[in-house]
């Protein structure tokens, strides 16, 4: 069973964020979020080590939201947007597809849960994060 935990990399990250940009380029995978009023920006930069990512409309992940409600309660994810997932089904799928070549590495499953998007990233290295 998956185990979700709130990820709090910095103290000044807004509790609710909105996806402004998802960029995959030679400089890495860069995510930019803003707070509810667009006053504070959060930039998450995975400069290297991203193995896979996906972006799914939040309204399409009904089973995931039901799971979170049942095991953690609605406040767990409605009051926060950044998570890490242990025993991840997505990571299990990735290890199977890649024939296990990354199983000796510590791969983290990061989730950015916004009101419209659920962005998931599998990465060997943690991102750099700035709040503006």
Content-based structural category: alpha+beta
H and E order: EEEEEHHEHEEE
Report the helical percentage.
10-25%
Fraction of residues in β-strands:
35-45%
Name the overall outline: globular
Distance between the termini: 36 Å
Ranges where pLDDT stays below 50 over 5 or more residues in a row are none
Q: State the strand order across the main sheet.
A: 1-6-7-8-5
Total strands: 9
| Number of helical stretches of at least 4 residues | 3
Average pLDDT score: 96
The Rg value, from CA coordinates, equals: 14 Å
When the domains are counted, the total is 1
The largest β sheet comes out as:
5 strands, antiparallel
Describe this structure in words.
The protein is α+β, with helices and mostly antiparallel strands and 132 residues long. The chain has one domain. The chain is built from 3 helices and 9 strands; from the N terminus they run βββββααβαβββ. The strands form 2 sheets. It has a 5-stranded antiparallel β-sheet with strand order 1-6-7-8-5, covered by helices on one side. The protein has a 4-stranded antiparallel β-sheet with strand order 2-3-4-9, with no helix packed on it. The longest helix is centred in the middle third of the chain and has 11 residues, at 62-72. It starts with a strand and ends with a strand.
Write the layout of secondary structure elements.
Elements: E1 3-6, E2 18-25, E3 28-34, E4 41-46, E5 50-57, H1 62-72, H2 74-78, E6 82-86, H3 89-97, E7 108-113, E8 117-123, E9 128-131
Antiparallel strand pairs: 1-6, 2-3, 3-4, 4-9, 5-8, 6-7, 7-8
């Amino acid at each position: 069973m998956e185990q979700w935990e709130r990820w709090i990399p910095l103290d000044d990250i807004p509790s609710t964020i909105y996806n402004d940009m998802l960029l995959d380029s030679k400089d890495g995978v860069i995510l930019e979020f803003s707070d509810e009023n667009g006053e504070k920006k959060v930039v998450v930069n995975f400069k290297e080590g991203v193995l896979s990512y996906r972006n799914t409309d939040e309204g399409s992940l009904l089973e995931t939201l039901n799971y979170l409600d049942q095991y953690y309660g609605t406040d767990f994810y409605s009051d926060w947007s950044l998570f890490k997932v242990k025993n991840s089904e997505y990571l299990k799928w990735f290890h199977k597809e890649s024939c296990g070549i990354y199983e000796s590495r510590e791969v983290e499953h990061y989730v950015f849960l916004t009101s419209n998007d659920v962005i998931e990233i599998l990465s060997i290295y943690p991102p750099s994060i700035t709040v503006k």
